[in-house]
Structure formats: C-alpha cells, structure tokens
Design brief:
By secondary structure, the chain is of the alpha/beta class. It has a single domain, classed as Rossmann fold (3-Layer(aba) Sandwich), CATH 3.40.50. Helix content is about 30%, strand content about 30%. The chain has 6 helices and 13 strands. The strands form 3 sheets. Strands 1, 4, 5, 6, 7, 8, 9, 10 and 11 form a 9-stranded mixed β-sheet that branches. Strand 6 and strand 7 form a beta hairpin. Helix 2 packs across helix 3. The two termini are about 35 Å apart. The protein binds 1-O-pyrophosphono-5-O-phosphono-alpha-D-ribofuranose (PRP) and uracil. The site of 1-O-pyrophosphono-5-O-phosphono-alpha-D-ribofuranose (PRP) has 23 residues, from strand 6, strand 9, helix 4 and helix 6. Belongs to the UPRTase family.
C-alpha cells in the first residue's frame, strides 16, 4: 500500500479552516471541494492513458487520452458525497458509482446500506472518496468490495487519517495495488473512534445532524 500525504501550504491553510469548529456548513462544503480538487491532482498521477495523434492548427502531434474503460469514482455516502464535485472537476469523463456505509458508533463496524456499482469492475481503475479514515473499517470494507468485483487498482482520497486506521488497511490490503492520498495524517484516535485533532463528524459538518 502506498500512502501519499499532501504537503502544500494551500491544503494546510484550507484544512485549518475546515478543522475550526466555528466554520459553518456552507464554507465547510466549499473547502472540502477545493481540498479534494487539489488532492485529485496527486491521486490521478497514475491514471491510465494511451497515446493518440491529433492535428494542431500547425502540425500533427501526439498526446495522451484517458484510457477506456474510464476510471470509476466511488464516493462513500454520506460524507464522501461532499468530495465528488471536487474530484470530477479534474476527471470529468469518469463514471460514478455509490456505496452507502455507516459506522456503528459502539462497535465501529461498518454497515453497508446502499450499493450502486457496475457488477464487473475488471480492468477498472477505481477512486474511492471518504473524508475520514478513522479505524479504517469503512474504507477497508469499501476497498474489499471493489476488489471482489474485479477492480485491479484502487486509490482512496481522504482528507484526514489516523495512524491506527492506516495500519489496519496496510495489513488488510497486503499484496493489492492500493494507494491512499491524504490531506493530513493526524495524531491518533480517541476513545470514541474520532480522529484527533480531526475535524469532528464530517457528515454532520457537511450536511447537519440527521
Ligand atoms: C464516517 C466517515 C467514514 C467513517 C470513518 O462516516 O465518513 O465513512 O465514518 O470511520 P472508520 O474509519 O472508523 O470506519 P459515518 O459512518 O459517520 O457516516 P456518514 O458519512 O453518513 O456521516
Ligand atoms: N467519522 C468522522 O466523521 N470523524 C471522525 O473523526 C471519525 C469518524
């Protein structure tokens, strides 16, 4: 498993506002989108392309086009939905599938309540979006789901992660082609399974308490 932590002052600046508990939902949503667009640049570094020939007004030249089948972007509902626009801004031809998951706040086990993905993901590059990689239960289950459907490589884009969750994923994805792109790697999990210092409950901060 490869882990890439973004190291850029613009991302850190935006993350600082995101972490601030006084930041209201409209600003939180806008910043989430902006941070994901910046992370998407790194996450798509190995997007599959093929060489094509084109005519410029001056001559014939070669360039690159994103290969078929097009990449699949999978936001994990609910909070991952807040990352979708930021991702497809850079990858507008991607297809989008959905996984709905919620973590049991007592056991920290993820429960899948919705799934809308192609049956066959063979030869498909997948990009999973989830802002918080805490215990790693939700992202681990999502990645496993995609590999079971035939995905060959999975890149996860997360805004924050805890070391405990990363270690769990590292063990579970051994031998698989998995990349994790992070806005920041935080200190630890607290006794409630929240990332510290973190930003609180990402879904609630994006969409309110439901
Ligand atoms: C949050 C978050 C992740 C998960 C992370 O979602 O968006 O999916 O928790 O925790 P884990 O790494 O310990 O599994 P939540 O279950 O709160 O659902 P929501 O997106 O609907 O708010
Ligand atoms: N889910 C969140 O939204 N935040 C955390 O810190 C952990 C899990």
């Amino acid at each position: 498993m490869r882990v890439h932590v973004a190291d850029h002052p613009l991302i850190t600046h935006k993350l600082t506002v995101l972490r601030d508990k006084t930041t209201p939902s409209p600003i939180f949503r806008a910043l989430t989108e902006e941070i994901v667009t910046l992370l998407a640049y790194e996450a798509t570094r190995n997007v599959r392309t093929n060489e094509i020939q084109i005519e410029t007004p001056v001559t014939t030249t070669t360039g690159l086009a994103i290969s078929n089948p097009k990449p699949l972007v999978v936001p994990i509902l609910r909070a991952g939905l807040g990352m979708l626009e930021g991702m497809v801004k850079l990858l507008p031809t991607a297809e989008v599938g959905f996984l709905g998951m919620v973590r049991d706040e007592e056991t920290f086990q993820p429960m899948t309540y919705a799934e809308r993905l192609p049956d066959d993901l063979s030869n498909r590059q997948c990009f999973v979006l989830d802002p918080m990689l805490a215990t790693g239960g939700s992202l681990g289950a999502a990645i496993e789901f995609l590999f079971k459907r035939g995905a060959v490589d999975v890149t996860a884009v997360c805004i924050l992660a805890a070391p405990e969750g990363l270690e769990k994923l590292e063990r579970e994805t051994e031998g698989r082609d998995v990349t994790i792109v992070l806005g920041a790697l935080d200190e630890r999990l607290n006794e409630n399974g929240y990332i510290v210092p973190g930003l609180g409950d990402a879904g609630d901060r994006l969409y309110g308490l439901v």
